[in-house]
Every structure is written in structure tokens, then in C-alpha cells.
Amino acid sequence: MSESPPRRLRGGNLLARALLEKGVEHVFTLSGGFCNPALEGFMECGMRVINCPHEQVAGHLADAHTRITRKPAVCLVGPEGFANAVPAMMEAWGERSPVIFVTGSSTLKRKGAGGFKEIDDVAIATPLTKHSVGITDGTRISECVDRAWKIATSGYPGGVHLSLPVDIMFSSFDEDAGRAERPYVRTASPPPRAWPDPSALEPVLALIASARRPIIIGGHGIWWSGQEKKLEATARALNIPVFNIPYHQKLLGEDCEVYMGLADIHQYPPSGQALQACDVVVMVGGRLDNQMNFGNSPLFPDTLQLVCVNGSFEELEMNRSADHVLLSDPGAFFDALLDLKARGAWKLDRSWFDTNRAWRGEWVAKTLADLAPDTEAAARTSGKMHPLQLSLDVQAEMGEKDWLVFDGGNTHFWSEIAVNLAGWGGQKLAGILHPGTFSMLGVGVSMAVAAKNTHPEATVVLISGDGAFLSGGLSIEAAFQEKLPIVVVIDNNGGLDCISQQQERLFANGKHFATDFRDIPFHTMFEGMGGHGELVERREQLGPAIRRAIASGKTACVNVKAKGVISPIVLATTSKRDKASIE
């Protein structure tokens, strides 16, 4: 009896199967005709597809899902939709998020002849991804997915882009096309990890062991390698204070004893005290970019030794200004540090660690004392809330299983300060998300929806500036459509306050220009979409309003009339022109 011929499948279906084989669970898209064969494949494979109101929203959702789960998600768009998704690609690039971007592109047969919706998506994506390629042979679809996946997740992780022309998307191929070559098994496998060269490791360990006032600054590489628990264990065992590179998802909870705050002298001034006094800084999984002032003073004084430990050559190339560099997986490096104590080579007591704890406690007390007169005056006069008080009060309504997201300019910066203050007081949260390296406005709603999607039992609260919400507010439809209720608290100060505050200090006439909004009733917009909405004009109304919003079980908006207050980081970079966290 002759064997039946192989089943024939469209190229889009082969794409879906290759991604399923890698373990992809979520695809985010704005459905379009160019992508229909892939969507049919995802449907047949039983993969969850979330249809978004805009391609940029699809990209931000895929990015946030990837950051939370540490597993690549897919953003699928058409040719013109690719242009809309570019900002999301940039945001993911800044945070090293290995999102798989897929474009259903114009026909390969007529490439360069002005095909329908033709755009050079491969070239556009190249500087914003680790790997951008057009698939020119349908029999190589599985190979291209395998290659892109491994590039995305290996070494210095990051987004990748595959362009699948519409004629290949719709054409049919044998279901086992391209599977006669190695690798025969194309399921996802753990990425390779770099173990340190002993001859390079020992001098670095000796330097750190001799330090009397060392600190650790943790970066992206720790998160993507899943080594944050080893970071905490190492810091606890060796009495080393830990700081976090700004703008990335927090590696340790703000309530964690070894965690001090951001390595940012404006948003967390005690980090400046620590950097001035310390003798060795060990930055693990981070980059000496603008946030780290390229390794220079005043952030890193000449009096200290700067060590950079990274799991890939790409990272080390960015850290050329360090005094010492080491190629090593973060987990392997932490194991080596812990071994110093096991073999009796670690002598540091708790005095330096306790000094940093004391600095943090003093800063918390002073910041809260400075805030109190403003809060008391607002209570007496029924005035608007300070954004720092707003963020503190929001967190007071949250529990340790809940997720906090913040988005905006000054709203973001004040919330960064607030989570440190609340953490010192014992506040525990399940997770915190916010814009990344590029400080892109409008990502907050998408991040909050992703947090709710991955943690449906949690309450997810977003604190968003009004400008940030206007930049990305359309994404709220995804929360309604997917029945993923989130609570959005709008820090409504009537304009782009971060920019207007800069202008008032930079412009010769002391005024701001082109930054004001009208009085927008954000809460009624949520009500009109079927959600819950409330307006808050005084502080005593905020807590009850948040509790009602959570209890409603609906996607909700608490629209808070807050006052504009310049954040310390913006004040420093506009008035003093200090160059430390922002150029």
C-alpha cells in the first residue's frame, strides 16, 4: 500500500507551527489580510491571539508579556502596521526584550516594483533588533524561526524580526518542508551560558574580596538570565548593598533588606553617598550607557574601581570604560562570590551595609517630612494632591500579590521615589513595570493589561500621567475586550508637566509653551466604554475611590486632579545641568 503524500499547508500555517514548537503561548496583532494564513495557523494550533486596537499596542503587549514571563511573545502585523509597531520595537530594544516581530509583507515576486503596501521592513527593523530578515523560500520557514529564536534568546537578548511575503504566506508547502536537515528537534532549549575563564576570574575576585566598601549594581542581564534570587542570596551572605539600574523592571522587591534603591543620585540621593564612599563597584548585567554616565564621574568617582560582569561579548563591548571586565553568566559569577565565603576568603562585616541602610532610612524620613507640609496645606485648603502623595496613597490600597505599573514623565519619576519610600515601610508588591531606557510615554496601559493577563488573580493598578494616557490610551480597549479589568489612576495635572517645568527653567521669559491640555474627563470615557469611573479632587477621596474601583470588577479609571511638581531628576537636569542620570 503506497504512502499518502505529505499534507500541504500554507506558509502562514508553517510559521504558526514553528512558533508553537518553540512554546509561544501568546500572539498579539491587529488582524489584517496579509496575515490571514498565519492567523488560521494560530487558530488551528490553539494558540491565544489577542486582537489589539493598534499595532503599537500589539507590540507593547508582546514586549510586556515577554518581560514578565521571560519567554518570547509574538507581535504579528501587516506592512503598514509594521510602521505603527516601530515605536514598540524601539521600547523592546531598549530593555533587551526578546520579542518576535513578524511582518506579513508585500509580494516577493514583485519586490521593488511598487507592490501593494510595499515597505522595506527588513531595513527599518535592522537597527532596532538583533536580527531582521526576509524569508524568501517557504521551505525555510521553520529554519528561519529557529534561527531567529536562538538569536533573540542567546547572549545579549533582544527582539528579532521576520518578514514573510504575502505570496509565500499564502502558498502551499509540504508540512514537513525543511525538516530533513539538522536540527531535527526544534523545540526551545535553554540559551548557552558563559562560564568565566579562571585566569580572568581570580583577579576580579581578589579585588572584590579586598574591598571594604563594595556595592553591586544590578542590570538587565540578571533579569533575563533569571538570577535575581542568587543576587539577593549573595548580597545577604556577603553584606553587600544592592542598587538597581534605572528604568528596568525591579530585580529585588523594594522591601528587600539588601536592596537600597536606584543607582541614580537624583531619584535616590543615598546612591550618591554610597558611590562617593565606596571603593569597588561591581556592575552585573548592565551597560555603561547614558544612565550610568558612561562610567564617568560624578556618578563614578575616580577614587573607586569599576568592575563590569556580563554574560555576552556584546555587553562587554559597551563597557570598555570599566577598570575591569569579566565575561561570565551572572549566576556563575554569584556562585564564585559565594564560594569566597565558603573558603574563608571573605572578611567584610555588616558595618558598611548598615551604613547604607542608615542612609536610606534618613532619606526616607527627610523625604516624608518634606512632603508633610504640602499634604497638610492641601487638606486645609481642599487643594490638589502632590504626585508623590498620590503614589504613596495608591500603594497603601495594594497588597503583596498585586502589580503596580506607572507611566509618564514626572509621574514616573515621583512613583519611582514612592515605591522606595513605601518599600522601606514594608510595602510588598508582586511586581512593578514602567517605561524603559527610552522613557516612552503611553506604554503603561499595555503593560498593565499584560500583567493582568499573566496574573489574573492579582489587582493591577496603573498610575499614569494624563499625557502618557493620551499617548497610549487606545490600548484600554484590549482590557475591555479580553475581560482583563485593570485600575487606571490618572495623575491629571492638565498638561505635559515634565516638559512645561523644564521650559519654565530654560526659557528666558520663564513661561511654558505648547504643553497644556484641556480639562479632560477621563473617568467618563471609561464609563462610556462600560467600565467604572470616578473623579477625585481631594486626597481623602482617593482611597475610597480606589477601593470602589477594585471592587467593581470592571476596568476602571480614578481621575485625580493633582498638581504639577517638578521631580528631582528633571530639576537637576534643567536647572543645574548635572550630567549623571540624563545627559
From the spread of the alpha carbons, the general shape counts as globular
Number of helices: 23
**Rg of Cα set:** 25 Å
For the biggest β-sheet, the strand order reads 3-2-4-5-7-6
CA-to-CA gap between the ends?
Answer: 74 Å
Assembly annotation: single chain
Structure description:
- The chain is α/β, with parallel strands linked by helices and 583 residues long.
- It folds into three domains: 8-174, Thiamin diphosphate (ThDP)-binding fold, Pyr/PP domains (Rossmann fold), CATH 3.40.50; 198-356, TPP-binding domain (Rossmann fold, 3-Layer(aba) Sandwich), CATH 3.40.50.1220; 382-576, Rossmann fold (3-Layer(aba) Sandwich), CATH 3.40.50.970.
- A six-stranded parallel β-sheet has the order 3-2-4-5-7-6, with helices on both faces. A six-stranded parallel β-sheet has the order 11-10-9-12-13-14, sandwiched between helices. Strands 16-15-17-18-20-19 form a six-stranded parallel β-sheet, sandwiched between helices.
- Helix 3 crosses helix 17, helix 15 (387-396) crosses helix 16 (410-424) and helix 20 runs parallel beside helix 23 (568-576).
- The protein starts with 7 loop residues before the first strand and ends in a 7-residue tail after the last helix.
- Mean pLDDT is 92; it is low at 576-583.
